[in-house]
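tool=predict chain=A
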Amino acid sequence: MNYVGPRGIPHSIFMGRVREPGEPEWLPEDRAKALEWLVFDQTRCSGCGRHHHEWQDDNGKELRDLPFAPTPVYCATCHMLEDARVEMLPSEPEAKRGWTIALERVGLDHEPPAPLHPGA
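tool=predict ok
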C-alpha cells in the first residue's frame, strides 16, 4: 500500500486484476485497504516516523530491548543545505521566517544566487 496508496492505484489492479467491462475500478476490498493504510500512515510519530506499536509488546508495554537505535548518517545534500541556510538566510530569526532553501537542478555554468538580505 505504500506504493499504490499515494498514487491512487487500486490494490487489486496493482496485484494483477484485469478489470472486466462494467466492473468498478475500485472494489470494496480496495477501498477498505486504502482507508486502513491511510489510518495506519497517519498514526506515525511526526518526529521519527515510527509507529508506537513498534516499541511495544503484545500487551502495549514498552519493550525492554528496543528494536531500533539512533545511528548517525551523513548526507552530502543535507550538509549542502545546512551550509546554504547559514550563508544565504539572514541570521535574525524574524528575518528568516517563511524562508527555506530549496534544491534546483542546474547546469554546469550555474552561479549560486546572492544571499538574502532583510527587506529584500
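The helical segments are 4-7, 11-14, 28-42, 76-88, 93-96. The chain is about 35% helix and 0% strand.
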